[in-house]
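Pilot study result, target chain (311 residues):
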Amino acid sequence: MSEKRTPVVDALGGLLIVDKDGGWTSHDVVAKSRRLLRTKKIGHAGTLDPMATGVLVLGVERATKMLGLLTLTTKAYTATIRLGQSTVTDDAEGEVVATTAAGHVTDAEIASGVAELTGDIQQVPATVSAIKVNGERAYARARAGEDVQLAARPVTVSRFDVLARRDVDTGTAQFVDLEVEVECSSGTYIRALARDLGEKLGVGGHLTALRRTRVGPFTLEHARTLEQLTAAAEAEEPLLSLDIDQAARTAFPTREIDDKQADDLRNGRWLEPVGVKGVYAAMDSAGRAIALLQESGKRASSVMVVRPSNL
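Predicted structure:
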């Protein structure tokens, strides 16, 4: 029988912000993190495609209960869009279905296409997305050869900036590669932006590189690669990016409470509301997160007790 190893974090845990490498699935990252932190209590707050790199937010131990309450409604990316070629998956991992010379496309035409894809738009998700169709993931149906038709849905692209243009002549094809930065609402597919920009310009397009730089308030500054985390584990250094108190302060508005109020929350009682909208953190005088609250009518009730009496 294998020896049970003691977790390297306490029962409260916190958030681990990983700078994911390309080729890893989000599930792979969770599995590796479980081994590093010696606990099974790890979950992620939204996936990142295997091709993509960058910010992946993981909850550890009790902080896994916090994941569903995090306000991760905005995300930021850097990406490379190739104009002149369409693929089945709208990214570089899919089979090429059409190649069209794109060297003639002007910067003004690109700017016009980008402007049409900025703001509140209707977007048809990529066919190989994780959206469920009759209980099954769209990508599973597509890989099985089914013709998957997804409905357009509203998303917000608050920023879509072209940073650089590179004209690529392979001798047999002329492409235009665009380095872009995008800030958008959760649920926006950058692959679909690449596809739609190419369609608007009449030459097709797909994504060749994608890096997520921010999820909600969590950025690459909070993140470490799995290689860095492995080295830290071997050196017996702390692995969490934010303990549960830091996570609460970073992710939510806060309200300071006294010892009696803390005791009330731990025992299922509610507090008087103070007019804060959405979920917020109740912090004691020592700066410890006691609970996450949400107000309704004359009550500010706990939606999660962060620090029970026994912790």
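One observation from the pilot: Residues 26-37 form the longest helix (12 residues). A full batch analysis is planned for the follow-on phase.
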